[in-house]
């Protein structure tokens, strides 16, 4: 379980969250809903350990994330940011190989196939479209074995076919793991999620 307890976060001088609390279960898919600018990305980043808290705490399976060793924290949550910037001209196959084999999920080959990455393996990641790069980023996250998957706007650059493919993988992960998906496109997605957290 992820427990967000009375957190306060600022972005510059702007107060994004103040005494905010929420819970994400260790099984099932949770939709993090809210309009653009509401703080969804900030919250995902805070849970991932990338955005510092001014007050409060975030616990994963009872462990304060601020006290976790990086190697242990990396095994507990896997993150697909809203945009991952690829600056080196590795091929998609080389990018995938950066993920250690012993840390991959047992179905990682099926995930790669479902996301359409086998057809892109020989292409340089820097030459891909934004949507293709997004699927590479999602692939890196979803092939990792983790307790929780944190996906920030995973559908934003995808057509309807790949949106369905991503939802299929989320459904599979949510049977045994906790999945948090931040999205502003809630009307089209709500029926696919067992839980919802709304940020206004």
Brief description of this entry?
This protein has 200 residues and is an alpha/beta fold. It has 7 helices and 9 strands, in the order βββαββαβαααβαβαβ. It has a single domain, classed as P-loop containing nucleotide triphosphate hydrolases (Rossmann fold).
Kindly describe this structure:
- With 200 residues, the protein is α/β, with parallel strands linked by helices.
- It has a single domain (2-198), classed as P-loop containing nucleotide triphosphate hydrolases (Rossmann fold).
- Helix content is 30%, strand content 27%.
- The chain has helices at 40-48, 70-76, 92-97, 108-114, 130-142, 160-174, 186-189; strands at 2-11, 14-24, 28-33, 55-60, 63-64, 77-80, 148-152, 178-183, 195-198.
- It starts with a strand and ends with a strand.
- The mean pLDDT is 93.
Main traits of this protein?
Rossmann fold; 7 helices; alpha/beta; 200 residues; four-stranded antiparallel sheet; 30% helix
Widest β-sheet, arrangement of strands: 6-7-8-3-9
Model regions low in confidence, pLDDT < 50 over at least 5 residues: none
Number of helices: 7
Give the strand tally.
9
Shape: globular
The average pLDDT is 93
Task: Please give the radius of gyration in angstroms.
Answer: 16 Å
What's the CATH superfamily, by name?
A: P-loop containing nucleotide triphosphate hydrolases
Largest sheet: 5 strands, parallel
The CATH architecture term is: 3-Layer(aba) Sandwich
Number of domains: 1
Layout of helices and strands:
Layout: E1 2-11, E2 14-24, E3 28-33, H1 40-48, E4 55-60, E5 63-64, H2 70-76, E6 77-80, H3 92-97, H4 108-114, H5 130-142, E7 148-152, H6 160-174, E8 178-183, H7 186-189, E9 195-198
């Amino acid at each position: 379980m992820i427990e967000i307890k009375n957190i306060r976060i600022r972005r510059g001088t702007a107060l994004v969250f103040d005494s905010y609390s929420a819970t994400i279960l260790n099984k099932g898919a949770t939709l993090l809903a809210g309009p653009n600018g509401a703080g969804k990305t900030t919250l995902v980043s805070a849970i991932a350990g990338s955005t510092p808290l001014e007050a409060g705490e975030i616990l994963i399976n009872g462990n304060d994330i601020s006290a976790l060793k990086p190697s242990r924290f990396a095994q507990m949550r896997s993150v697909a940011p809203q945009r991952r910037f690829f600056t080196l001209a590795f091929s998609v196959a080389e990018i995938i190989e950066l993920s250690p084999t012993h840390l991959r999920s047992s179905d990682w080959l099926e995930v790669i196939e479902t996301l359409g990455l086998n057809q892109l393996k020989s292409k340089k990641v820097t030459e891909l479209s934004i949507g293709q790069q997004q699927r590479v980023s999602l692939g890196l996250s979803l092939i990792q074995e983790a307790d929780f998957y944190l996906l920030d706007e995973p559908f934003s650059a995808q057509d309807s076919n790949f949106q369905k493919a991503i939802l299929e993988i989320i459904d599979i992960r949510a049977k045994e793991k906790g999945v948090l998906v931040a999205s502003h496109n809630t009307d089209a997605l709500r029926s696919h999620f067992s839980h919802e957290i709304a940020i206004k």
